[in-house]
Design goal:
Oligomer: single chain
Strand order of the largest sheet: 1-6-8-7-3-4-2-5
Shape: elongated
Radius of gyration: 21 Å
Strand content: 25-35%
Length: 235
Amino acid sequence: MNFGKNLQYLRKLKAMTQEDLAEKLAVSRQTISKWESESAYPEMDKIFILSDLFSISLDKLLRQDLTKKRDAYSDIRIKTIERFRMARYVVISPEPENDSIAHMQKWLVDSGLEEYPGYKPRMIGWDFPHLSIEQINVFGLRGYVSAYIIPENFTPRCGGAEIAWQERDTYAIITITEPFRDAFDLIPNAYKTLLAYIEKNKLAMHNCENRICFEEIYEYEGTQFMDVYVPIDQV
């Protein structure tokens, strides 16, 4: 049983103190400490609350060793990204990511961007949020945007992508090592970790217009990484 160390891991992932968690469960801090050291265990009603609070199944909470994923994440850092130009393409479908990425990979060649002197391709991507409730719930559709960051003076020799500017912004960033070895856990948990950090430090966005969360995948010395960016109010 891995409950104690899983609870501690999830609590820290959410940037919560023992006092914070105790308050949510209407117990004492000492009770949380006992649960984490496994000198005592919660009643089932508290376990159900913990499962909902951390959006995790009972099986994972009680049995799996979640701490094995701890080394997958970097520390959170804050960085201001200067205004940049990009070529982007959105796909709306039940599984839009692969189609959107494939389209832009072809565009990279057709547009002449791949041949641009000194250019090193940088692709970013994010969920396209502007779908109706009917598209999501009735038709099971999602939207995804893939984009290449492009030089300011580059002129593509074909269409097929929207050219746009992303304004200067400040982001909370976390890096995931080998994100696709458990993508359905590692990537969502990266966002949860960033959002918990933002809430804890009172950095939430007040003006959300034209601001995006995005991901960038790259390789370094044979290992794949993903940087996850969430915009924040400047500190």
